[in-house]
Structures are given as structure tokens and as C-alpha cells.
Design brief:
single chain; alpha/beta; 8-stranded mixed beta sheet; two-stranded antiparallel sheet; 10 strands
């Protein structure tokens, strides 16, 4: 009982840790070090020494190791367990020699194609006089520049504290992961408190304001993921923590290894370019605004790049349809967001090019004032101005230089949005169909229903020839009971149910059906031959060749004229094929076949309508299979 309360108290404590408490956990003397984790997660590890410039810094350890048969280059800050080891490792604070050793191993990994995994655990670079004389700043800067040009995937894990440039010198990675209780900062809470509040006692307040924990950095998109720690911190179960790191690293590497070199470099560049948020709409002091850099106009994404991304997404959707799997919902949402941004940028460019930008800015200011002061969207005068500006923009939009690009992106946005809506609709329909089928099975498995069906089968089996009127009534009664049960079930699913009588109560006999199948197949072959003859005609062949040339030309230099030419050729080809299919001979044969089928159905309906044994078997099959046709709403029907 005591251990249970102790565990609960420990859980409550570690669930609501303050930032300064997490700093203290990150600095715990028993916390697993870089080498502890490496030996736990690698199958084999070989340490590499020296910067080839006369020194081997023990504060940074590098080496080659393998995880699940794949080789990686490992490098990381190494702290000690006790005072003696910490002195030997310089408390995990590297000198320029350490960063140059890491740089040598980066070049080595880049040359041989080894992915790089770095472990960050340092209060910062060693800032003594000797290190400054040896070029501490230059060594860190050189590492930063080099890491952005490495052609192999890089994953960094903050396992303790990551301090300033000393951590960033091996932390410019495609993915930055952090242990749950790790911290990453530009200045330690004690240093920040000493600068801002003139006392280190204000470090708890500084730690909170700096937002240095894994949770806060993940929200700011500086950290790409949080690796969980056991209750009590990583030192409570080092082996379990190492396995969590291994899982996260392998998952990140699998994602990055799919990228080609250029995608990898762009991914790393974009990760750091997006850092640093700001808020719009907050008034800026006019004195500060004078010295601020002018806002750069957004640049629309190149059409070729956007088109390539859209084509990839279309291929994914097509594969999902062929394999009957779920469409890539995440990819669709991301593409819709991206296209909306691109369309906004294109509209801004169009407004600027037609000379309406100043008027639009003035209207926005008037709109903001009217909304803020009166609490209304706009007054009638302002609405007229907005409508007038909108009409002018619509009339002059076609003269904008980027009109074709804007139209293309709008078309793509409509197409992707339509694909997303269709995927959602199909998913809902599949779910509803499955739910209805399950309910049908439940109804048919009810003891009362099963007993009645079995009793009917026995009675029908004992009769010979046509069924008596009394037996017919029993069959119809059971059928109605089943339909009522199914109707109640479907209404419980919030569906509007309407019974639909079968239109084929008197089916065509099998022999006639097979004869009609043969005739339909022959007719289809004639249609196919007509289409083939039309396609192989010299005139249509030349149009098809022209279409191929135009498509090839459009892929290299896409423009509005090429697009119009392609659409015109496609329309001409479709028209020629339609003319071939609508020939008088085919139309006459089609009408004749329709007439024969109608006559066969009519003669079948005139035949004896009594329920014979064969017909009764069909009815029983319908009852057993719960095949009751219903109408859902106005447009959907399920059988």
C-alpha cells in the first residue's frame, strides 16, 4: 500500500515538473551519457580519435557503429560520472580540437555515405583563453557551415542539456529530437538571471521565460520530436531510455533515407529557415519601424515544382484506388493548404500588377477601423466600395501577367479539393455499408426469425406442385416481418427507409438470358470494331500524332496556347469517335436488341404468376441473405 502511494506521488511529481526542475534532472550526475546510449543501441561500435591537427579532445567522442545492420557515424558530447572523470572530459565542454575532430568525421561520413547521428549534452563550448586563441568561434562556425552542405541524413538527439553554440556545432540536423527531460538553450537559466535580474536566484523565473524544455521547443517547431523517459528520469532505467532513442532514430532515418540529395539539403535548410515566429496585426512604434527591414514580397512557388508535387499526389491517389486502400488524407490536406497560399500570393501579385494595390490597402484599413470601432463588419458605403473594387479587379484580372499561373493553381485547388471530398464521401459510404451489413446479420440471426424461416422451408418441402394460397400468405407474412425488423434497425442508424418492390419479379429464363448475353457481346464487338476503324483512319491518326507532339511540347514549355491547342485536338478526336459510334447501322441494331429484350420481359410477365418451387427457392434465398432493397434519402439505395 505504501509503495502504491509512493508511486502515485512520484508520478504526480514528474508529470508536473517546472522548467528549472527539468534542468536539474538534465544535469543529474547519474544520467546516462553518450557512450552509455551508444553501447546500448549499437550492434558494434569503433571509436575514432584525433582531429589530425595535434590533439584528441576527450569532451567529444566520435566513431562508427551499426544499428540493425546499417552503419552510422556517431558523435557526441561526453560527460563524466564523478569529479575525476568530469575533469578528464572537461565537464563535457569541447575545445576547438573537439569540434575539428567532429568536422573531420563529418567529412569522412559524407565521403563514404554514412548517415550521421549526433548526441548533444554540453553546458556550452569551453570558453577559456587558450580555446579563444585556438579559434573557438571559427571552429564552431566552420561546423555550422559544413553541416548544411553534407549530403547524408543527420539526426541529432539532445540527451541532457544543449548549451548555445557548443551544442549547435553538432546540431544542424534534418531532425532534432529531445529526451523528455532534456533542455536546449542559448544561455543557461543562471546566466540569463544574472544578466536580467542581477542574481542567479532568479533562475527558475529565467528558465520559464526562456522556454527551454522539450515540450515548449516542440511547440515552437525547433524540436521535431520528444523521446519519452521512464518515471524518475533517464537514470531510473538507462537501458529502456536507450531503446526509445534507438526506435526514434531508426524511424527518423527511414524517413530521411527515402529523400534524394537535393531534397535532403532543402529539408535541412527549410527546417532552420522557418525558425522564429512573429505576430501580425500588433501596432509597431514608429521610431522602431524606421530602422526595421522592409518586408519582402512573397515569391510564388515555381510552376514546375508545384506541378511535380501534384503529379506525385495524383499517383498516390491512383495507387490507393487500385489497391482499395485509403487515400493519402495528410498529403491532400497539405497540398490544399499549400495551393491556398500559392493562390493568395498569385492574387496579391495580380492586384499589384493591375494597379489596385494602394486602393486595396486603404480599404483594408477602413474595414479594420469600422469593425473595431462599431463592432460591425462594414457600413453600406464601405460595402459599395468593396463591390466596386471587386468588379474592377475581375474585369482587369485577365490582363495580369500571372493570369495563366493563377488560373492553373485555381484549377488544381478545385481538383484536389474535389478528390478530398470524394475520398471522404467514399470512406463514409464504406463505413455505413459495413454497419448496415452487420445489422442485417444480427436481424437474420435472431432466434424468432430463424425458427420461422426453418418452419417455412419444412412446409414448402412437403408440398408438391404450385403453392396453396394459404402457404403464399404465410411466406408474405414472414417476409413482411423481416422487412419491419430491418426497417427498425436502419431507422436506429438515423436513416430514412423506403421499401422498394422488385422490378424483376418474373425473371427471364436462363436459356433466353444466355441468348441475349451472346447478342449483347456481338453488339459490343461491332461497337469496338467501329471505334478501332475510326482510330486507324488516316485523318484521326494524324490528329492523335499532333496531340502527342503538343503534349510533349507542353511538358517542356507549358503555356496557355499549348493548353488550348491540346483541348481542341482532344475535342475533335472525341467527336470523330462519337460519330463512328452513332452510325445509323449501330443505332438500328441497338433499337432492335432493346425491342427483343422488352418483348421477352413482357412475355415473362404474362406467364403464370403462381409461386412454384423454383421461384420459392429464390424467395427463400432472398430471405436467408437478408436481401431487402431500401432507399436511403433521395439519391442512395442499398440492397
Amino acid at each position: 500500500m505504501i509503495s502504491k502511494y509512493l508511486f502515485q506521488a512520484l508520478k504526480d511529481l514528474y508529470t508536473h515538473l517546472t522548467p528549472i526542475q527539468r534542468v536539474n534532472i538534465a544535469r543529474h550526475p547519474n544520467r546516462p551519457t553518450f557512450l552509455d546510449h551508444v553501447f546500448n543501441i549499437t550492434d558494434k561500435f569503433v571509436e575514432l580519435h584525433g582531429d589530425r591537427a595535434g590533439y584528441d579532445d576527450p569532451a567529444i567522442v566520435t566513431g562508427i557503429g551499426s544499428i540493425d545492420g546499417r552503419s552510422y557515424m556517431f558523435m557526441g558530447h561526453q560527460k563524466g560520472r564523478n569529479t575525476k572523470e568530469n575533469i578528464q572530459r572537461n565537464f563535457g565542454m569541447p575545445t576547438p580540437h573537439g569540434y575539428r575532430k567532429a568536422l573531420r568525421m563529418m567529412y569522412y561520413a559524407d565521403h563514404h555515405g554514412f548517415p550521421i547521428i549526433t548526441f548533444i549534452d554540453t553546458p556550452g563550448a569551453f570558453a577559456d583563453l587558450k580555446s579563444e586563441e585556438l579559434g573557438q568561434g571559427e571552429a564552431i562556425a566552420h561546423n555550422l557551415r559544413t553541416m548544411f552542405g553534407l549530403k547524408v541524413p543527420i539526426v541529432s538527439i539532445v540527451i541532457g542539456e544543449g548549451g548555445s553554440g557548443g551544442a549547435l556545432a553538432i546540431g544542424c540536423a534534418n531532425k532534432l529530437l529531445m529526451l523528455e527531460n532534456a533542455v536546449f538553450y542559448v544561455a543557461s537559466p543562471e546566466a540569463c538571471a544574472a544578466i536580467l535580474w542581477k542574481t542567479a536566484k532568479a533562475s527558475p523565473k529565467a528558465a520559464e521565460k526562456l522556454k527551454i524544455t522539450a515540450t515548449e521547443l516542440s511547440k515552437l517547431q525547433i524540436a521535431d520530436g520528444i523521446i519519452p523517459e521512464p518515471l524518475g528520469g533517464a537514470h531510473a532505467d538507462p537501458s529502456w531510455t536507450s531503446q526509445q532513442i534507438k526506435t526514434a532514430v531508426v524511424e527518423a532515418m527511414d524517413e530521411l533515407m527515402k529523400m534524394d540529395t537535393q531534397e535532403l539539403l532543402n529539408h535541412r535548410m527549410r527546417k532552420f529557415r522557418k525558425l522564429g515566429g512573429f505576430q501580425e496585426g500588433i501596432p509597431i512604434d514608429s521610431k522602431r519601424k524606421v530602422n526595421m527591414k522592409k518586408k519582402e514580397e512573397p515569391v510564388a512557388q515555381r510552376g514546375e515544382e508545384l506541378e511535380g508535387e501534384i503529379e506525385k499526389l495524383k499517383e498516390q491517389i491512383l495507387k490507393a484506388k487500385q489497391s482499395s486502400t485509403k487515400a493519402p488524407e495528410l498529403g491532400l490536406n497539405e497540398m490544399i493548404v499549400k495551393l491556398k497560399k500559392e493562390v493568395d500570393i498569385e492574387f496579391s501579385e495580380a492586384v499589384k500588377s493591375v494597379g489596385l494595390k494602394d486602393r486595396l490597402v486603404m480599404l483594408r484599413e477602413e474595414f479594420a477601423k469600422a469593425r473595431n470601432s462599431q463592432g460591425q463588419i462594414a457600413n453600406s458605403g464601405l460595402k459599395e466600395k468593396i463591390e466596386k473594387l471587386k468588379d474592377e479587379f475581375d474585369q482587369s484580372l485577365s490582363t495580369a501577367p500571372n493570369y495563366s499561373s493563377l488560373q492553373y493553381k485555381l484549377d488544381m485547388l478545385k481538383e484536389i479539393t474535389k478528390a478530398k471530398n470524394l475520398a471522404e464521401k467514399n470512406e463514409k459510404a464504406a463505413f455505413l455499408r459495413q454497419e448496415i451489413n452487420n445489422k442485417f446479420k444480427e436481424v437474420m440471426e435472431q432466434p424468432g426469425i430463424k425458427e420461422k424461416i426453418e418452419a417455412l422451408r419444412g412446409e414448402i418441402g412437403d408440398t408438391s406442385g404450385d403453392l396453396e394460397n394459404e402457404m403464399k400468405e404465410k411466406v408474405m407474412q414472414v417476409k413482411k416481418e423481416i422487412e419491419l425488423e430491418l426497417t427498425d434497425v436502419l431507422k436506429s442508424l438515423s436513416l430514412d427507409v423506403e421499401a422498394v418492390e422488385s422490378k424483376t419479379k418474373y425473371p427471364i429464363n436462363e436459356r433466353s438470358l444466355s441468348d441475349f448475353k451472346v447478342k449483347v457481346n456481338v453488339f459490343n464487338e461491332e461497337i469496338k470494331k467501329k471505334i478501332d476503324d475510326a482510330i486507324n483512319s488516316p485523318d484521326l491518326k494524324s490528329k492523335v500524332e499532333m496531340l502527342k507532339l503538343e503534349i510533349a511540347k507542353a511538358e517542356k514549355t507549358p503555356d496557355l496556347e499549348s493548353k488550348n491547342q491540346i483541348e481542341a485536338l482532344e475535342q475533335q478526336i472525341k467527336q470523330r469517335i462519337a460519330e463512328a459510334i452513332n452510325s445509323p447501322e449501330l443505332i438500328e441494331k441497338h433499337e432492335k436488341l432493346k425491342m427483343e429484350i422488352s418483348k421477352a420481359i413482357e412475355s415473362s410477365r404474362r406467364s403464370d404468376g403462381s409461386l412454384k418451387k423454383e421461384d420459392q427457392k429464390d424467395d427463400n434465398a432472398n430471405v436467408d441473405g437478408s436481401r431487402v432493397e431500401i432507399n436511403l434519402g433521395a439519391n442512395r439505395s442499398f440492397a
